[in-house]
Amino acid sequence: MTDLPTYVLQRTFDAPRDLVWKAWTEPELLRRWYGPNVETTIHRLDLKPGGLWLLEMNWGGNANYQRAEYTEVAPPERLVWLHSSADADWNVIPSPMKPGWPRALLTTVTFEEQEGQTTVRLTWVPHEASDAEIATFAGAIAGLDRGWGAGMELLAEILVELQA
């Protein structure tokens, strides 16, 4: 299958690119908006190809672990990583929250500045996924804006605060 379903999120922020990049790459800022309405703990953020971003989200006694392995880091223009669910030892596992979900999503985030504003474009594409996983992902695309959209709202507020 060559034409994979792709989730695209695009948002323009009233902030310079370097500041938006900082909010995506500094653990103290990232944990404030990633995983809206949950407690997010960043256990590791090693921004280099082969580096890992290990995070834990907690809510109501539940824990969810995610592991991202960076394949490209080009400050302040582009981040690329493989995004997966993980167990508490950071091993890639099938998603405990979404049965049939792809084990990895190729995630690409670009940062483009124009006239003091920055457009962030994120894409998620199933990586080395089965046909069933691809179908599950395709069926979920319409609902992905909920979580990502809430995170982008928090990010916008943080960027305003950082420029005050």
Characterise the protein shown here.
This protein has four helices and eight strands, in the order E-H-H-E-E-E-E-E-E-E-H-H. By secondary structure, the protein is of the alpha+beta class. Helices cover 28% and strands 40% of the residues. Helix 1 packs across helix 2. Strands 1, 2, 3, 4, 5, 6, 7 and 8 form an eight-stranded antiparallel sheet that branches. The protein has one domain (7-163): Alpha-D-Glucose-1,6-Bisphosphate, Chain A, domain 4 (2-Layer Sandwich), CATH 3.30.530.
Characteristic terms for this protein:
28% helix, eight-stranded antiparallel β-sheet, Alpha-D-Glucose-1,6-Bisphosphate, Chain A, domain 4, globular, alpha+beta, 164 residues
- CATH class group: Alpha Beta
CATH architecture: 2-Layer Sandwich
Helix content: 25-40%
- Average of per-residue pLDDT values: 95
Task: Count the beta strands.
Answer: 8
Which strand-content bin applies to the residues?
A: 35-45%
Q: Report on the biggest sheet.
A: 8 strands, antiparallel
Could you say which structural class the secondary elements and strand pairing correspond to?
A: alpha+beta
The gross shape turns out to be globular
How large is the count of helical segments? 4
Residue stretches low in confidence (pLDDT < 50, at least 5 long) are none
Q: Gyration radius, to the nearest Å?
A: 16 Å
Element-by-element helix/strand order: EHHEEEEEEEHH
Oligomer: single chain
Q: Indicate how many domains the architecture comprises.
A: 1
Briefly note the CATH topology name: Alpha-D-Glucose-1,6-Bisphosphate, Chain A, domain 4
| Terminus-to-terminus distance | 48 Å
* CATH superfamily placement: START domain
